[in-house]
Specification:
By secondary structure, this protein is mainly alpha-helical. Helices cover about 55% and strands about 5% of the residues.
Length: about 170
């Protein structure tokens, strides 16, 4: 891989809490985009191992679904799943096949959900809380931003291995 692209901006060393959290989240979003750049639909849909649904395209679809699910909860709404449904929650991964239109759609959905998440975050104080059916106590936007950083960071580690296996490209 080449040097990191200009859209991947390092988080500041000093900033207020909101700025720091949002900078780290954007950094990890940009890292995943960078790991997926300049690959064909076939490469993006390449599975880590035959028994796994893990692929870079699946990851793009998955983070779009995750952005939607979590940031909708902040506002107390629940839009329909992008890829899955309650009976089949893993269609983000399972449906990631080498189709140029599916790749275009995955990026468009991801971009739209990131933009929506940014708007929700801009208008919402860090202290605002919301519920989740699997969590007994209130969850704050502050916690959610930390969780999203962790979600992207974990998948960026997966993306490192997938990208290297696809074309040998490595990068920080």
């Amino acid at each position: 891989m080449t040097d990191a692209p200009s859209y991947r901006v390092d988080p500041p060393f000093e900033a207020d809490e909101r700025t720091m959290l949002l900078a780290y989240l954007d950094y990890h979003r940009a890292t995943l985009r960078w790991k997926c750049e300049n690959l064909t639909p076939e490469q993006l849909a390449t599975r880590a191992v035959p028994s796994s649904a893990l692929s870079l395209l699946g990851m793009i679809r998955h983070v779009a679904e995750v952005e939607r699910a979590w940031f909708d909860r902040v506002e107390g709404v629940r839009r329909p799943w992008i890829y899955g449904n309650d009976a089949q929650p893993d269609l983000d991964w399972d449906g990631a096949i080498a189709d140029p239109e599916l790749v275009r759609e995955a990026y468009a959905n991801w971009d739209a959900e990131v933009e929506h998440s940014r708007k929700v975050t801009e208008r919402t104080p860090l202290e605002v809380t919301f519920g989740h059916p699997r969590v007994r106590e209130p969850i704050s936007l502050r916690w959610l931003l930390g969780h999203m950083i962790e979600e992207y960071a974990r998948h960026n580690g997966h993306a490192d291995f997938l990208r290297e296996a696809i074309d040998g490209a490595t990068g920080e």
